[in-house]
Amino acid sequence: MTDFAIDPPKPVGLPIAGTDAKFPVRRVYCIGRNYAAHAVEMGHDPDREPPFFFQKNPDNLDPSGEFPYPAQSSDVHHEIEMAVVLKSGGTDIPVESALDHVYGYAVSLDMTRRDLQGEQKKMGRPWEIGKAFERSAPIGPIHPARSVGHLSEGHVELKVNGETRQEGDLNQMIWKVPEMISYLSNYFELAPGDVILSGTPSGVGPVQKGDEMVAHVDGLGDLTVRVA
Q1: Which residue, among 136, 116, 134, has the nearest Cα to 126 in the 3D structure?
Q2: Cα separation of 120 and 70, whole Å?
Q3: If you ran DSSP here, which 8-state letter would residue 38 be given?
Q4: How would residue 48 be classed by pLDDT, with cut points 50, 70 and 90?
Q5: Which domains does the chain have, with CATH numbers?
Q6: How, if at all, do strands 76-78 and 112-113 pair?
Q7: What is the pLDDT of residue 223?
Q8: How many Cα neighbours within 13 Å face the side chain of 25?
Q9: Which UniProt keywords apply (predicted)?
């Protein structure tokens, strides 16, 4: 048994639909501006430019159904996303075989301290302070691909207090799931336990304490999250 100088952190395990087993998380990659309408609303050209990614931390993923409003921000935004979780990986993965590495999919949220992210953008600095804070990625149960198939189309919607804020379809993603996996594998060695948040449709906006968010992706059900 390895002798650690201090107690090691508890591994991050996510619920899997239909079983008591947990899915272990290794890394979290997030693609930016992957829906054309969202790129436009964020002030960017929707043309198919090379994808870009940022990272959240494994323990930012939170299946509790509660999102504590974070410190040092007064403008926290919701971004509904489909999470893609990998059962295997490698480098230089061909697009044609990329889906072979997918374990399953889940509904998730990329919560963003938009004011802090905006400050970092102006200074040309990394986004982590706006993206990778505690419990910034609420997530629902993982649905294995063997049960739901590989999702390339389907309605995506986020409601806040019963009002639809975001709406789109998975088929509107600029970079599809196999392309994301292949592209990432050219720059990182992907591995079992990696999670990819696949981008958000337009309509991102602020939440307040007490709000209830209901995120939906066809085939994956609803994720209900209360802003605490």
Answers
A1: 116
A2: 17
A3: H
A4: low
A5: 15-227 (3.90.850.10)
A6: antiparallel
A7: 98
A8: 27
A9: Hydrolase, Metal-binding, Pyruvate
How far is the C-alpha of 175 from the C-alpha of 192, rounded, in Å? 21
* Spatial separation of the C-alpha atoms in residues 26 and 6, rounded to whole Å: 20
Query: 141 is written with which tokens?
Result: 């149960």
CA distance readout (Å), 227 to 44, 51, 57: 29, 31, 20
- Residues constituting the chain: 228
The CA distance from 26 to 13, in Å, is 10
Decide: helix, strand or coil at residue 172: helix
Distance CA 32, CA 40 (A): 12
User: Which CA distances in Å does 2 have to 8, 25, 89?
Assistant: 10, 21, 26
**pTM (whole model) above 0.85:** yes
The Cβ of residue 87 has, within 10 Å, a number of other Cβ atoms equal to: 16
Strands 13-15 and 22-24: antiparallel
Amino acid at 190: L
Express each pLDDT in 180-211 by its tens digit.
Answer: 999 999 999 999 999 999 999 999 999 999 99
Residue 47 pLDDT > 60: yes
Consecutive H or E run containing 123: none
Question: Buried b / exposed e across 106-124, counting CB within 10 Å, b at 16+?
Answer: bbbbbbbbbebbeebeeee
